[in-house]
Amino acid sequence: MKARRREVGVRVALGASPLRVVRLLARETLLLVAAGALAGVAVYTLSARWIRQVLYDVAPADPMALGSALLFIAVVAWLAIVFAVWRAVSIYPALALRDE
After folding, report:
1. In this model, does residue 14 exceed pLDDT 60?
2. Is 4 exposed, middle or buried (0-12, 13-18, 19+ CB in 10 A)?
């Protein structure tokens, strides 16, 4: 978030509402998380034979195991978004513009 502090400061200084900043940051983060989750599911599917040898009493296509992993990723991503957005909304535009 530190790398984007100036960008957020400029947006707020030009009149962007906190809700607009929240939407921007949340949308970009969720797109990255969704792309990573899809790539992870694809690799998981391709490596199902090897995973079958490693897992005990769990089938590689077990919806409960896959759903639990995706739910865990979603919760961690949500927490990351909340803290990053909270910091972004609390930025003072003058300090962000001066900080370089």
Report:
1. yes
2. middle
pLDDT of residue 10: 81
pLDDT digits 0-9 by tens, 54-97: 777 767 677 887 888 889 988 998 888 888 888 877 877 777 77
Please report the DSSP string for 41-89 in residue order: HHHHHHTHHHHHHH-SS--TT-HHHHHHHHHHHHHHHHHHHHHHHHHHH
Which residue is listed with tokens 């990351």?
Answer: 80
Please tell me the distance from the alpha carbon of residue 96 to that of residue 100, in angstroms, as a whole number. Answer: 8
Taking alpha carbons only, the member of 79, 89, 67 closest to residue 19 is 89
